[in-house]
Amino acid sequence: MKAGIQTLIAYRMNFFGFVIGGLIYCFVMYYLWRAVFNSSGSDTFMGFSMVDMTLYLFLSNMTNQLTFSSVCDSVGEEIKDGSIAMRLIKPVNTDMSYLFNELGCALLKFIIFAVPMILGLEIYRFVMTGKVMFDILHFLLYLVSTSLAYLVSFRVNLCFGFMAFYVKNLWGMSILKDSILRFLSGTLIPLAFMPDVLRTTLEYMPFSSMNYTPVMIYMGKYGMTEIIFRLGVQAVWAILIYALSKLIWFHAVKRLSVQGG
Amino acid sequence: MRRFFKIYRILVAQNLKRIMEYKADFLTGAVSFLIDQAVGIAFIFIIFSQIPHLAGFTFEQIVFIYGFSQIPKGIDHLLTDNLWCVGYFIVKKGDFDKYLTRPINPLFHVIAETFQVDAIGELVVGIALMVYVSGSVNLYITPLSVALFIVVIPFATLIYTAIKIATGALAFWIKSSGFIIQMVYGMNEFAKYPTTIYSLFIRTFITYIIPFAFTGYYPCIYLLTGQNPLFNIGGTVLISVIVMLVALLIWHKGLSAYESAGS
Question: Scanning every residue of chain A, which has its alpha carbon at the shortest distance from the alpha carbon of B50?
């Protein structure tokens, strides 16, 4: 974990680039949605007010940063350049060493990025509605849900990283992964806006566990029973994806051929 | 000039050979960018299933703007992808020395080295979208307007390239500028939608500072309405030339400040 924090500090410039890039994207979306609300002629759009929508955009981006896992790229790189062999001969569980490395990053991101962000959003919400809407219970549940989301995201990314055993174009793979996840996890557009069949399907898929569930919990869109149910869905996926990543790993490592020496 | 073309042809041929060798790679890349585009369109589609128009634009018009904005982006992606590497690792690893020792312009060499076929995804989608909606939007079509519209594409592309050159060149001072390229390049998101939806500050910013508005909205609005060719087309040409000159200036300043890095 400590190593992860040190890496992040050393590459803080990249980190800030990433954060600012994300915020720019949020602002584009914010204006787009504002135009949508203006054009729709009503205050709410499918159950979301503009305040809800703004909150959703920024929270979803923040959750994305918190649950972000670069394990896909790092595993991929190591498979490609063969240094994965070094990890294989060490007496440490391979994926655990990645996991703890990243947890350090996530913790630091929470302190320097998420805390100010939440503060900013709550002030915005207060100014717009005139009420303090911050709810400590929902916030704590959000943290629980985000942790589960992180576990799912880590494993999904790991699975994609293992694809490097089969495909060599990692850059293409990562674009593919990002755009699929962006759509299916509700980062691009809240799942609530999608046609019913699609929405229900996606809510039960692992992707909504990675972003949508924690955000909706924070926003108080779920009742208590539903929160418990959703957390359960997340936990089940965390376990299933864990099993899947193990399965791929055992299958893939057999056909590992390291290029070069 | 002839020499440049010849070298370029050889380098591109070299790249194409590499692609033929790794066909699956090429497919992954192209399909990835294709899906990335499909997601963007699905987004617009879902929004429009709820509202009849967006800030006065119809679904088809928005798709037209979106589609057009992908063309300069795709051409730039196809031709100058290696500039990303300058920012991310070429300078940092000390590999840039290679370009300085060759008897051709280093900038030309960097750009010519990569021919990024992944960009086909963006280009195909961009063109397909424009063709698809061209029947249902009222375009202002005269021989002149079409000619201007086509002429403007390379200039819009220059804006992308210039921004990558300028931000990539910062690596000459700070060794790694990948994150800056990422940040500034990321603003092309603004180009996909009509600039009228943004606040005055952002609109000014993407028109005059990081002029991505000229890579999508302004040229399109000319073909959609036929108004203001001087600003919409002339502006694109003028601005793109200006940013390119600024970018080249930064690049050359950077080259003279460059000290090799690495072990």
Answer: A40
Q: What is the mean pLDDT of residues B36-49?
A: 84
Residue type, B143: P
Render pLDDT for A115-132 as a digit per residue (tens, 0 to 9). 888 888 888 888 888 777
Q: Where are the domains of chain A?
A: 2-254
ipTM for this prediction:
0.77
Instruction: Please state, in angstroms and rounded to a whole number, the distance separating the CA atoms of residues A142 and A139.
Output: 5
Considering only residues 95 to 154 of chain B, which have any Cβ-Cβ distance to chain A shorter than 8 Å? 118
| One-letter amino acid of A119 | L
What does the block give as tokens for B79? 């031709």
The CA distance from B235 to B155, in Å, is 10
Contacts of B22 in chain A (CB under 8 A): 168-169
Mark yes or no for CB contact B43/A17 under 8 Å.
Answer: no
What SS3 class is residue B194? coil
- The answer to whether A58 and A121 have CB atoms below 8 angstroms apart is yes
Q: Which of B28, B118, B186 sits opposite A21 (nearest CB)?
A: B186
CA pair distance B2, B9, nearest whole angstrom: 11
Residue B40 is given by DSSP the state H
Q: What value, to the nearest 5°, has the Cα angle with vertex B239 and ends B78 and B254?
A: 70
3-state secondary structure of A49: strand
